[in-house]
Write a structure and sequence with these properties.
429 residues; mainly alpha; 3-stranded antiparallel sheet; binds carboxymethyl coenzyme *A
Length: 429
């Protein structure tokens, strides 16, 4: 460690604060006693410089474009492993042995069905409801169905709630899709792998046989791995904050889903595909690049830029490969939207505006094209992100609950409103 303390001077007074070194990454100045000692708060809207917790789950080096889960690079997990193995790693901290992996798969599979009453719950939604609104409601509703796994002080119950959510999220996501398109719900099949089962719940119909294409199932599984966790992003921080009060775990995950929905976060994959379709052809790209650079135009290139990555998002590279795998398998060789995406990427990567601001493609740039080719409508994209991110939310929630230093999250503010004043009667206002 270069320094073990940081000195703060205000006027003629100075205070020392401890500096902690992480296993890798920037040092952090521990200001937990700042208010008690100095009477001041820090001001950091958007938490751009604030480490809100200690965590050993995921590490991102945004300048180098590195993403590690429990130390393992995302490239290796995506190329050599599968999603349930990544889930195990995120939850337990180590890759499973063969026996541990088999047992974990069995336990997740055993929980894939949802309470039959959930079917009735779904019919309360309008058919044209956005599937993310259905997910917010139905995942929150799980808290009303599984009372035997909500005592968060009991390690066993915490794990059952965790497994239930990982197992039931594909079932609920597929139900949201089926409800939206007006088809009957398809029950899970426990003889299929996690991603293959999800595809059959989405695309099988009772009237005919459905055979899962293994290449597409593998692509789906990779997409899940790429979205599994991403450190203290907005939705994960939401889950932690909601959970810090001791709230019901299913309700905490519903809070994460609500946060993920926004276009600056998980909603960007839907927005990116809409944007690519709006651009439509390569010759219109300069017009959109100019719009993105125009300070007076709110338009942004969706799927570009990231709060942490100031380099190519490593997930975007893997996603680009998955896109090609899926399109090749489906025999789509001249997809005009893919051509627009590739050309747009090429132009933006050499344009001064994007180069100077270090704006690179993020995971959402290519995921929309892939998901569309897999057969999902755009409004399902963020649902798939939520499905995959559930394990990350849960691992981070569990870590927080098990942290002896855990406190309810309670930020402070820089108050700029009126100071104390007396109530004015209506007749005198
Ligand atoms: N297109 C054009 N300009 C951009 C873009 C973009 N996509 N992203 C950032 N900028 C500019 C921005 O105008 C600002 O310029 P200036 O300094 O002149 O005011 C500068 O770059 C920094 O942007 P910022 O908004 O201060 O950066 P941020 O860290 O607050 O925002 C972001 C990060 C992801 C919200 C933003 O880059 C963005 O809106 N991107 C498009 C949406 C998107 O693709 N989101 C998916 C993120 S990855 C998936 C996930 O983790 O959820």
């Amino acid at each position: 460690m270069a320094n073990d303390k940081a000195t703060l001077t205000i006027g003629d007074k100075s205070w020392d604060f401890p500096v902690h070194s992480p296993s890798v990454g920037p040092d952090v100045i521990d200001i937990t006693t700042l208010y008690k000692e100095t009477g001041c708060f820090t001001f950091d809207p958007g938490f751009t410089s604030t480490a809100a917790c200690e965590s050993d789950i995921t590490y991102i080096d945004g300048d180098e474009g590195i993403l590690l889960h429990r130390g393992y690079p995302i490239e290796q997990l995506a190329e050599k492993g599968d999603f349930l193995e990544t889930c195990y790693l995120l939850l337990y901290g180590e890759l499973p042995t063969k026996e541990q992996g088999d047992e974990f798969r069995h336990r997740v599979t055993y929980h894939t069905m949802v309470h039959e009453q959930m079917n009735r719950f779904f019919t309360g939604f309008r058919r044209d409801a956005h599937p993310m609104s259905i997910m917010c409601g139905s995942v929150g509703a799980l808290s009303a169905f599984y009372h035997d796994s909500t005592d968060i002080s009991d390690e066993k119950q915490r794990m059952i709630a965790s497994l239930r959510m990982i197992a039931k999220m594909p079932t609920l996501a597929a139900m949201a899709y089926k409800y939206h398109v007006g088809q009957p719900f398809v029950y899970p099949r426990n003889d299929l792998g996690y991603a293959a089962n999800f595809l059959q719940m989405c695309f099988a119909v009772p009237a005919e046989d459905y055979k899962v294409n293994p290449v597409l199932a593998k692509a789906m599984d990779t997409i899940f791995i790429l979205h599994a966790d991403h450190e203290q992003n907005a939705s994960t921080s939401t889950v932690r904050l909601a959970g810090s009060s001791g709230a019901n775990p299913f309700a905490c995950i519903a809070a994460g889903i609500a946060c993920l929905w926004g276009p600056a976060h998980g909603g960007a994959n839907e927005a990116a595909l809409n944007m690519l379709e709006e651009i439509g052809s390569v010759d219109r790209i300069p017009e959109y690049i100019a719009k993105a650079k125009d300070k007076n135009d709110p338009f942004r290139l969706m799927g570009f830029g990231h709060r942490v990555y100031k380099n190519y998002d490593p997930r975007a590279r893997l996603m680009q490969k998955t896109t090609h795998d899926v399109l090749n398998e489906l025999g789509i060789h001249d997809d005009p939207i893919l051509q627009v995406a590739m050309e747009l990427e090429k132009i933006a990567l050499t344009d001064d505006y994007f180069v100077e601001k270090k704006l690179y493609p993020n995971i959402d740039f290519y995921s929309g094209i892939t998901l569309k080719a897999l057969g999902f409508p755009t409004n399902m994209f963020t649902v798939l992100f939520a499905l995959a991110r559930t394990v990350g939310w849960i691992a981070q929630w569990k870590e927080m609950i098990e942290d002896p230093k855990q406190k309810i999250g309670r930020p402070r503010q820089l108050y700029t409103g009126a100071t104390s004043r007396d109530y004015v009667e209506v007749k005198d206002r």
